[in-house]
Design a protein that fits this description.
The complex is a heterodimer of chains A (about 250) and B (about 250). By secondary structure, chain A is an all-alpha fold. Chain A has nine helices and no strands. Chain A is elongated. Chain B has a six-stranded mixed β-sheet, sandwiched between helices. In chain B, strands 2-1-4-5 form a four-stranded antiparallel β-sheet, with helices on one face. The N and C termini of chain B lie far apart (about 35 Å). Classes of the chains: A mainly alpha (about 250), B alpha/beta (about 250). The interface between A and B is medium-sized, with 13 and 22 residues.
């Protein structure tokens, strides 16, 4: 016998209501271009351009270490021409996006959570609402979009610098020529190596900034609360990066 | 007119408002007194929809605030100025930008916006501070900028959340005068939440005492001054002896 569908009541209904409300608010906020449009460029500069030094710093040492490590592993077993292949593939597809993402989870995630958390506990978020602004439109959307757009840009710089440092290391410290390194680099290269890394880094940018906004806007309890939620934002951002990294590997590889 | 009808509000298991009923009449300044943690600021946040009541209704000009859709709520908020306890100025913006933010959504042309910024700063006697950042201002000046931001878009109502807390007596008197001027010169209906009895008597047309989540007494300044209610008497006289157990710390 066919059972009629049970109508959810109590907590399940409230959860559905909350999800519906959240979805409605998100759709409205994304559509509210008049509010977030003028703020987007500033956030792209803050979250992206200002993050370049730390991303490049990490990429420099990643490139050096990876080149040396490849040489150490391959010596006597695999021709050293494959150093270029390993450095290129590893940096483009994994280390570039993930290490940059993790570094930016600290810098950007903490920055956003601390800023919005302070705004929350000092009633600036409430003030924004009383002035007829949606915090989601004014605070969240420009940051999350900036993260999604700028993480791939920063990652691109990191990849170029990382591969470049791997090449410099190979020709100066290893028994390799530029031609051999580049030959190795091109050996297994496919265009997917590039877009796979960039898709990942865009998803990392969205996740890190969303975690920062979420933790910032749910801050309670003054300075201690700001500190606590800033830490949570960084942890949540890092966890999201690792989970997304595995997800994209399963889906796209 | 703003009306609270049997409003209840919980925070977790803490029952803060336990049937608050109060009518705020147009053109008057109503002061809400009460011990810390009795829900005075919560009552203000219910009026602008920053919080939702768990039971009961809060109506502004006949509109039930928590039943309004987004656009209607924005429209209602456009009629209400909110002066926050610690001003809640945006740190990354100058004084002028703080005020401009509230005017940007009102469909005013740029000249009118600039004029409103100048007028509201003149009303709070802070001309020449347009380009300063909140960090460069004293506590009293920040509060006055908060007032300028709230009055710039010419609201019908202004909600004052402990406007004189933490200020010296002279600055307190200045803020009190500003509250009086907004009613007299701009015709604004005010709700002032305060612990300061001198301020309450100076600015209030009516005074309501909130006690244990309900209005204990409401009346004119004279009626409150002559009250025989022991709870209200203890509060307005600031007597520590225990008619009402007072939480310390």
């Amino acid at each position: 016998m066919t059972q009629p569908l049970a109508v959810p009541t109590g907590p399940p209904l409230r959860a559905v209501e909350r999800v519906g409300h959240w979805a409605g608010e998100t759709a409205h906020a994304v559509g509210d271009i008049v509010t977030w449009g003028p703020l987007l460029l500033g956030q792209m500069r803050r979250l992206g351009v200002d993050s370049l030094p730390i991303a490049v710093f990490i990429a420099v040492f990643t490139g050096i270490v990876l080149s040396l490590l490849a040489s150490y592993i391959f010596t006597g077993a695999v021709p050293l021409v494959f150093v270029g292949a390993l450095v290129g593939k590893a940096i483009m597809m994994e280390l570039g996006p993930v290490l940059t993402g993790l570094a930016l989870a600290g810098r950007v995630g903490a920055n956003i959570a601390a800023e919005l958390g302070t705004m929350k506990v000092t009633e600036q978020v409430d003030a924004l609402e009383t002035l007829a602004y949606s915090p989601a439109s004014y605070l969240v959307v420009p940051r999350v979009l900036a993260g999604g757009l700028m993480f791939p840009v920063v990652t691109t710089f990191a990849v170029v610098v990382g591969v470049g440092m791997g090449w410099l290391t190979a020709i100066n410290l290893l028994d390799l020529t530029s031609v051999e390194f580049i030959k190795g680099l091109r050996l297994f290269y496919v265009f997917k190596d590039i877009w796979f890394g960039l898709v990942k880094s865009a998803s990392f940018g969205l996740a890190v900034t969303l975690a920062g906004c979420l933790m910032g806007l749910t801050t309670r309890g003054g300075a201690e609360g700001v500190g606590r939620n800033t830490t949570r934002a960084v942890v949540l951002g890092c966890e999201a990066i690792l989970v997304l990294d595995a997800f994209w590997a399963l889906v796209l590889l | 007119m703003i009306v609270f009808e049997d409003v209840h509000k919980f925070f977790g298991t803490h029952h803060v408002l336990k049937g608050l009923s109060l009518t705020v009449h147009d053109g008057m300044t109503t002061v809400i007194l009460g011990y810390s943690g009795t829900g005075k600021s919560v009552a203000l946040k219910l009026i602008v929809g920053l919080l939702r009541p768990d039971a009961g209704r809060v109506t502004v000009d006949g509109h039930c605030v928590h039943e309004l859709d987004r656009d209607a709520l924005i429209q209602i908020r456009g009629t209400i100025g909110y002066v926050f306890q610690f001003a809640a100025l945006f740190d990354s913006m100058t004084v002028a930008e703080n005020i401009r933010l509230g005017l940007a959504r009102r469909g005013l042309d740029e000249d009118t916006v600039e004029q409103r910024i100048r007028e509201s700063l003149a009303l709070v006697e802070l001309e020449g501070t347009e380009d300063k950042y909140p960090a460069e201002l004293s506590g009293g000046m920040r509060k006055r900028v908060g007032i300028a931001r709230a009055i710039a878009y010419r609201p019908r109502y202004i909600l004052w959340d402990e406007p004189t807390t933490g200020l010296d007596p002279v600055t307190t008197a200045v803020i009190d005068q500003l509250i009086i001027r907004t009613r007299r010169e701009l015709g604004v209906t005010g709700i002032v939440v305060t612990h300061n009895m001198t301020s309450a008597y100076a600015v209030g047309d009516r005074i309501a005492m909130l006690y244990e989540g309900q209005i204990r007494q409401v009346g004119s300044v004279e009626a409150i001054q002559q009250t025989t209610d022991p709870v209200v008497r203890q509060f307005i006289e600031g007597r520590p002896e225990a008619v009402v157990p007072v939480e310390v710390g």
